[in-house]
Amino acid sequence: MSDVQQRIDELVKGNRVMLFMKGTAQFPMCGFSGRAVQVLKACGVEEFKTFNVLEDEEVRQGIKDYAQWPTIPQLYVDGEFVGGSDIMMEMYQSGELQQLLAKA
């Protein structure tokens, strides 16, 4: 495992809810990242860790390989890849995301 993959793995496994996004939760830098933050908040998640991929090109590319997923944002819960903003939205609308996030 490369250094960047190791760093990503530690972030994913070290935080219950981890969102790799463009910008921050307070200042999302793209609409999809903003929607991902809104969905988490709508699910009642008060504490989640974010990583701004715009500040680290290695992680920005490495996260795509890590999950075999080409786009950002990417949500991980309990060390497992959930998906991007479209999948988060679908899961939220079906109630599946709230159930996943409630398992604490």
From TrEMBL:
Q: Which domain of life is it from?
A: Bacteria
Pfam families membership: Glutaredoxin (PF00462)
Domain Glutaredoxin positions? 17-82
* Keywords of this entry: 2Fe-2S, Iron, Iron-sulfur, Metal-binding, Redox-active center
**What family is reported?**
Belongs to the glutaredoxin family. Monothiol subfamily.
Q: Return the protein name.
A: Glutaredoxin
Report the source organism: Rubrivivax benzoatilyticus
* Gene name tied to this protein: grxD
